[in-house]
Structure formats: C-alpha cells, structure tokens
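Flagellar FliJ protein
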Amino acid sequence: MSPETPLDVLIDLAQEKLDEAGRALSELSARRREAQGQLNTLDDYRADYTRRLQNTTEQGVSASNYHNFRQFIATLDEAISQQNTIIAQIDVRIEAGRKQWHDEKRRLNSYETLKARQVRQWQYREQRREQRASDEISAGLYRRTRQPH
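Predicted structure tokens:
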C-alpha cells in the first residue's frame, strides 16, 4: 500500500481541525474560569460592603455616607450583572465549541473507519495474491514430482 493516500491526507487534516477545536475549547474554558473568578470576587465585595452598610447603619450613619454606600453597592450590582452577561456569552461559545469538537471528532472517526476498511481490503487482496502464488508454486512442484524423468 502506498505510504500516503488521499484518505491519509484527509485524516491528517481532520486531526488538525480536531486539535484546533480542542485548543479553542480549552481556551474558552480558561476564559470561563477567569470570568467566574472575577464574578466571585465581585460577589464577595458586594457581600462585604452590604455587611459594612448594615453595621454602619446600626451604629448610625450620615445620609451622605449611606448614599455613598448604596451608590457603590449599585455600582457593584451593575458590574455583577455585566459579568453574568459575559459568562453567559462565554457559555454559549463553549457549547458551540463542544459541538464543533464533536463534529470534528465524528469526521475523523469516519475517515479512520474508511481507512481501516481500506487496509482490510488491501490485506485481503494481498493474502489472496500470496495464496495464489503459493498454490502455483505447490502445483509446479507437484507436476515436477509427478513427471517421469
């Protein structure tokens, strides 16, 4: 069998696309973890400032300080909302990336299945060719031993 068939080229290309899809999915997952970390930090800040506001109001707080606390917490709420939107967008891209990876994997598996079938057919033809050659040699030896000298 020739060293590189068109099917081998397709398998190599499909493997490259699968690897590329895997790298992209891995990168998206890393971005998701980073975005989730940022969201967790924002949530922690918000919880901390909410506790501070509650403690401060129990001890008495001026209207301007109360307003500043509420305004800062509102700013954190907006940042948390934006971060949730970013995470949702990344999740959509991750799902698309997973689908892409599965499609590429399916394509590669199809090519590999075709290649395996091609190899089996080639092996079968080779075995038949070798059997015929062996049969011809045996028949020739048999004829020589049966012929009178």
